[in-house]
């Protein structure tokens, strides 16, 4: 199976990363200025606001997939790529249920549940490894800036926060020391659940779009 070189991955994710960072900044400004819903929301978890980076894998998954397929890094089987992408979604859902149950009473079990959402994100790599590699790199590039924003948002105003969704926490975590609060509400979700989400959603839409575009066509040589 062909590997995508690190330099090529960086080039491939460069523009999407800049766009994603711009959306993160726009969302922060919009929440600080109390711009209207449903475009912006200060509710914990984001409140399903339309301006946000969690939707971007729907766009960038196909973008990465088509670029990779055209460059000779397509899947050996489109059906296999789609199937394992959806299997990852099922695994992610199961991990998410476990995480939701343990988050009601945070403990070591909660910390153990978080990695399962990340592991689920690696399932689609079985069907299309090159796409998974690129989505992982993009997910990290997208989420690390969010971690930085959350740190300053949560510690701002003497610990009272900025009043954005980046520092909004559930009542369960409100009284925790800053370090533990940041661990549970920022580090763990951003570096596990949201990365897994990006990889799975990007893989699903990417594999489907690539299969449609190259249906009946001889694209670049597939991975073997």
Structure report:
It is a single chain. The protein is an all-alpha fold and 224 residues long. It has one domain. Helix 1 packs parallel to helix 5, helix 2 crosses helix 6 and helix 3 packs antiparallel against helix 4. The radius of gyration is 18 Å and the shape is globular. The C terminus is likely disordered.
Share of residues in helices? 55-70%
Total of helices: 6
- What Rg do the Cα atoms give? 18 Å
How many angstroms separate the termini? 5 Å
In percent, how much strand structure appears in the residues? under 5%
Rough shape? globular
Number of domains: 1
* SS class: mainly alpha
Q: Mean pLDDT score, rounded?
A: 90
- Largest β-sheet summary: none
Poorly predicted runs are: 218-224
> H/E element string?
HHHHHH
């Amino acid at each position: 199976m062909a590997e995508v070189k690190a330099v090529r991955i960086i080039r491939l994710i460069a523009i999407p990363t800049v766009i994603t960072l711009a959306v993160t900044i726009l969302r922060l400004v919009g929440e600080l200025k109390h711009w209207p819903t449903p475009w912006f929301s200060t509710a914990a978890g984001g409140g399903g606001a339309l301006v946000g980076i969690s939707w971007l894998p729907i766009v960038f998954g196909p973008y990465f997939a088509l670029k990779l397929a055209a460059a000779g890094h397509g899947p050996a089987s489109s059906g296999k790529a789609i199937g394992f992408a959806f299997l990852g979604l099922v695994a992610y859902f199961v991990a998410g249920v476990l995480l939701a149950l343990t988050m009601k009473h945070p403990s070591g079990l909660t910390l153990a549940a978080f990695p399962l959402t990340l592991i689920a994100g690696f399932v689609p790599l079985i069907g299309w490894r090159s796409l998974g590699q690129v989505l992982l790199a993009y997910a990290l590039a997208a989420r690390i800036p969010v971690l930085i924003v959350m740190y300053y948002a949560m510690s701002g105003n003497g610990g009272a926060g900025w009043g954005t969704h980046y520092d909004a926490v559930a009542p369960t975590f409100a009284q925790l020391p800053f370090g533990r609060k940041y661990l549970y509400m920022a580090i763990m979700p951003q570096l596990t659940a949201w990365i897994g989400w990006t990889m799975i959603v990007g893989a699903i839409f990417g594999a489907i779009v690539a299969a449609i575009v190259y249906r009946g066509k001889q694209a670049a040589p597939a991975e073997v």
